[in-house]
């Protein structure tokens, strides 16, 4: 960002006085300099475009400051945290995070906060971009079925968090009541090809991570900062698969990344990319060539990167168990031509077998995990099976069961799989080593033994057998038990 032409109000008059003196000595008058952004006049009225994540409203570009009407509706509504896990979210605009608000320095924002009549609780809003008591919270406290109006002038450029500040504050934030408001500098931000809106949040449920059903908020876990879920954009998978954000090779991407908390600080990182520029903490300080940027709870960062090669780039909180075990994982899918000068791709894959390498076991506590509720129908078996596949098998056998040439055999249309069900069960239970031939290709590698319950093995294999052109068998826990007990 270019240096702001307005003198931040907090530096105040003493600095301005000195500045004026210096200018006087040099006999140069500044062409146009408001003594403070407070004095920027507004020219007309307009309605703010609000967007739900991961979308961002259009740039303010060269428009002058306006009276900007923001209409925001609070909705308390049930949503899905992850497959089979429901949660009642409290939202600004029906999404977590809430609608993105894009303003320009000097705008006079007239904020209309509406609390839907079906809601159960009063709420309010504290916008970190507001200069005034409670960031607006004191003037915006609104009961269900009411609308509050207050206004403020945006004086400082940057990316700011807003959140509900109604007691118990932590609970309102933990239920999803946060979002971002951008204040663009006079000249706007430099043009980029793609812009996205991402916010991390931590969630606390009565049940453990993955326990199905409607999960109430757990106050004690929140106080203890023991999050069950840490996610981007309100739920596990909000930015993966078909929901991934996208770009084309050669494009510049700007990410507006916030952290609603309520508790955890984010070590935001994109696997396989380097941030070309970061507006540190959403302010004017610019850092370059950053691997991981810290985003405090109640803070934000503007991240810019150019994508040079195609692929799936994984967005994570690099406090890495949060990414792979609690949900803080998203995807930036980049399409376009390979650029081997930048990245060669795999050149070789040689088998490396240290002496004594047999079948390795995943470390485990010894006990066989039991899934909470056994699948009741084929539909459920498929659904639970897919979850296990995506958590356990995906890394090697890949999303569509296509495998990886010379390393991991395909499960899609695998003649080896389809020929012998008991053998397949045995492989998942005990692992596999030694040469095998799958669809005419030889593999001689190691599959580690998987620590799964009979039920989980049944579900995942049913999913595999009923996907990607395989022979459509249903595997039951009884069949798995037979193989486990050596028939
Ligand atoms: Cu609230």
Automatic annotation (TrEMBL):
This is Copper-containing nitrite reductase. Belongs to the multicopper oxidase family. NCBIfam families: Cu_nitrite_red. Residues 380-468 form the Cytochrome c domain. It is found in: Periplasm. Keywords: Copper, FAD, Flavoprotein, Heme, Iron, Metal-binding, Nitrate assimilation, Oxidoreductase, Periplasm, Repeat. It comes from the Bacteria. InterPro entries: Cu-oxidase-like_N, Cu-oxidase_2nd, Cupredoxin, Cyt_c-like_dom, Cyt_c-like_dom_sf, Cytochrome_c-type_DH, NO2-reductase_Cu. Cu cation binds at residues 123, 128, 163-164, 172, 177, 318. Homotrimer. One of its GO terms (cellular component) is periplasmic space. Its cofactor is FAD; Cu(2+); Cu(+). It is an enzyme of class 1 (oxidoreductase). Its EC number is 1.7.2.1. Pathway: Nitrogen metabolism; nitrate reduction (denitrification); dinitrogen from nitrate: step 2/4. It comes from Pseudozobellia thermophila. GO terms for biological process: nitrate assimilation.
